[in-house]
Amino acid sequence: SFKMASDSPESLMTLCTDYCLRNLEGTLCYLLDNETLRLHPDIFLPSEICDKLVNEYVELVKTDSIFEPHESFFTLFSDPRSTRLARIHLREHIVQDQDLEAIRKQDLIELYLTNCEKLTAKSLQTLVSFSHTLISLSLFGCCNIFYEEENPGGCEDDCLVNPTRQVLVKDFTFEGFSRLRILNLGRLIEGVNVETLLRPLASLAALDLSGIQLNDVGFLTQWKDSLVSLVLYNMDLSEEHIQVIAQLRKLRHLDISRDHLSSYYKFKLTRRVLNLFVENLVNLTSLDISGHTMLENCTIPSMEEKMGQTSTEPAKSSIAPFRVLKRPLQFLGLFETSLCRLTHIPAYKVSGDKNEEQVLNAIEAYTEHRPEITSRAINLLFDIARIERCSQLLRALQLVITALKCHKDDKNIQVTGSAALFYLTNSEYRMEQSVKLRRQVIQVVLNGMESYQEVTVQRNCCLTLCNFSIPEELEFQYRRVNELLLNILNQSRQDESIQRIAVHLCNALVCQVDNDHKEAVGKMGFVMTMLKLIQKKLADKTCDQVMEFSWSALWNITDETPDNCEMFLNYSGMKLFLECLKEFPEKQELHRNMLGLLGNVAEVKELRPQLMTSQFISVFSNLLESKADGIEVSYNACGVLSHIMFDGPEAWGIFEPHREEVVKRMWAAIQSWDINSRRNINYRSFEPILRLLPQGISPVSQHWATWALYNLVSVYPDKYCPLLIKEGGIPLLKDMIKMASARQETKEMAR
């Protein structure tokens, strides 16, 4: 089922929601006085659509850097006569007091406010307007919602220095919330009296008090006939707590887990405590005791363990107290406890650190509210993916993507998650991944690069991008990837390894793409960035991969793109070319890349006069004799000169060297090349070569062009014969054979 889920296209509902949110003005809304969004008067939307619009909006603001939030978005849902809201999930700084205030007339059934740190006590008052309909409410991590701003009385000069003080609201309770059944107060700030706050609630079914320290929880027994779920994550427990829990006989889900790194913790879980739970909480289907130290021996001695296949049957349980369970638990949380390593665990789903299944269950269970635990679980997954093979690849990928999206600003999760993604997307897993899933990976990787200048995250993200087919798979985010990479390369202090990977990616991104892409990237400062890198390397006298990749990237980005060729010349590219030749006379790869690039510049008629200097022409002529990289350097030097010769004798504005002398050296070079040479070059179009055929002004240029075509179509016929035909090369060759000015050997080759 997992495979199918990731492959199916988005639902029409999702696509429409996404489109409307990205184009509010063109679809549901108009702009009033050029600033306020207003719903068109003839629009009426049911809660199924409105809930999705609001929840997706929050998701987009959080995970899509290009998406612009709207000041007045929530006001679109202020009138229940045209828009109905029922179940909404709001997160983090996206929501403020005035947003909740805007929707106060709605009859909300479910309201989740997660880590909404901007909400203050004004929002507590707004909550009251939902009190008659609200069934489920979460205020998890809303650390300021019980604070109000108070103007100090008798305002003297103090007003200017400190106009508002934060004061804790003491008198708010859930009085009047008659239908409220599910409540999450996780990470509530200290000083709020939980007992008084909750007393008015008649029949609570689920309560989450994560991270709250309460010495006395006796008040919980007032819901002993209704409470089915209780979460006390990271609460300091004592014997009194245990006795109270044992009275809540209706409980189906109990979570007393803890983060074992968070603080010193006196309480130890014993066999007696587990026995007490199992005997009294007869409806229990889910129990989480992660992070606890087990004091007495809760386990069956290994001699008495039943042999054979691992079993979920309670009777065979390796954890002694669970042998009396009527049936296996649906879920048992044992993450970072010794118990998860036992053989027989009587539960269908176990979170732990023993194997892939347990680790994935942990990531799934804790991502939403416990990033501190999740990052350690993802770290374990990273080891599994790196050392062994992941057997539940799609599930693993999806869970890591969700965690990275959910905790965009959590450094630990970004570091471990981006590292895990690198191993989960490498080639051995490639076959199992759909386009949609791979795009989701790219999106979260780019989010990570955007939010974190931190070296480890940047390196992990760049490495992960190398697992994709470039440019094809990155095409849908082309501008954004390039901007991010150029951003990395323009930083003043750079990590060597990141620099190397980023230049490699830049080079791959401009290889074999359309000219409009190249022009766009050129305008982003690509040429300048590469030349700066070359300049730095030259100053250090190092010719490494960064140097070679930078020249290669310039070769690619100038291919049939005159604007970028001009930029290269304007930013002193020729000066760097000469300095590199002089500094690194033996570096063949480098010479090939530099001359390939100059070949592109020479194809642009308007720029050729800038190459017409004694110094440049001498350098190109001398490189005709180069044996570097087979024939490539000599071939490219000859190509540059062929285009210059094509402009005729009147364009030859120099005394030294003589034009005839250079022509002679060009003939000698071409005759020395092996016609069957395999090539280190890639042509997308023959147009620049074909234009040298129908002319009589420079027979040597004609010969170079014919040699180039002959070599390419004979060594790589499958690739280049169709290209030659498609671009009209055949009639041009036929006409050239009839030309009087063409040399005999050129005609032979053309034939």
Automatic annotation (TrEMBL):
Residues 404-750 form the Protein zer-1 homolog-like C-terminal domain. Pfam families: LRR_Zer-1, ZER1-like_2nd. Keywords: Acetylation, Leucine-rich repeat, Repeat, Ubl conjugation pathway. Transmembrane segments: none annotated. GO terms for cellular component: Cul2-RING ubiquitin ligase complex. The keyword S-adenosyl-L-methionine does not apply. Belongs to the zyg-11 family. Interacts with the ELOC-ELOB/Elongin BC complex. Part of an E3 ubiquitin ligase complex including ZER1, CUL2 and Elongin BC. This is Protein zer-1 homolog.
